[in-house]
Amino acid sequence: MQSDFPIATPHGEIRQIFKDVFIVTGSVMMVPGIQLSRNMIILREGEALTLISTVRLNDQGLKALEALGRVENIVKLGAYHLGVHNGLDDPFYVDRYAANLWAVDGMQHRGGLRTTHSLRPGGEMPVTQASLFTYDSSKMPEGMLLLHKEGGVLVSADSLQNWAEVDEFFSKNAAIRMQQAGFIKPANIGPEWLRVCQPEPKEFARVAELDFAHLIPSHGTPILNTAKEEFQTTFAKQPF
Predict the structure, then answer these.
(1) Where are the beta strands (DSSP E) in 127-184?
(2) I need a surface site. Which of 39, 50, 78, 201 has the fewest CB within 10 A?
(3) Separation of alpha carbons 140 and 124, rounded Å
């Protein structure tokens, strides 16, 4: 195994959200003094684990992960994903577990990785009972995974966020800057993703038509039961 991967940064414990659906909140240093939180979502099917928006875990965290099952799939949903840390830890997990790398068409990867399985609407998925939504007009590829269970669970990268408040993995400077930049809001469209990727307003009407009750975002805390209603309100307030 290689040893030149980015080191593990502070993170919490793996938490179960639904049966076979887990999340772990970690961190990333964007630039010196600016540390943010980020989530890795873990899906289990039998003994197989699928990791979405990877976050490298420390040795204790890896033991907890391996106790859940065998890592087989890595999923990359967004090409932007807050820029600096986009796909930062994918090479570590692909190398450690010889995992498949699933990505929305048009993605580029770090460390010389190549997509082994393309994610396309209506196409093959890394887990059953799931489908892919893509923002077709986004200037950078961006998708969400919809799990057809528990009333509909939407898993997002950068497009839909829920940083309702700053958490323990924010540095003081990051908390101030992110609040000023409009990131710290519940049921939020990612401000920088929106600015950079410029999706057409009709995309959010398509999101509102999806059958989901919950959101598990790569940034912020899960929204349980009321996600669709909360984002319908958010979309209605946008000055598109």
Answers:
(1) 130-134, 143-147, 153-156, 160-161
(2) 201
(3) 21
Structure tokens of 136?
Answer: 């077709």
CATH class of 15-237: alpha beta
Residue 10's alpha-carbon distances to 41, 138, 149, in angstroms, are 16, 32, 31
Per-residue model confidence as pLDDT tens digits over 12-29: 999 999 999 999 999 999
CB 214 within 8 A of CB 223: yes
pLDDT in tens, 162-217: 999 999 999 999 999 999 999 999 999 999 999 999 999 999 999 999 999 999 99
Cα torsion 23, 48, 71, 119 to 10°: value is -80
H or E segment to which residue 102 belongs: strand 100-104
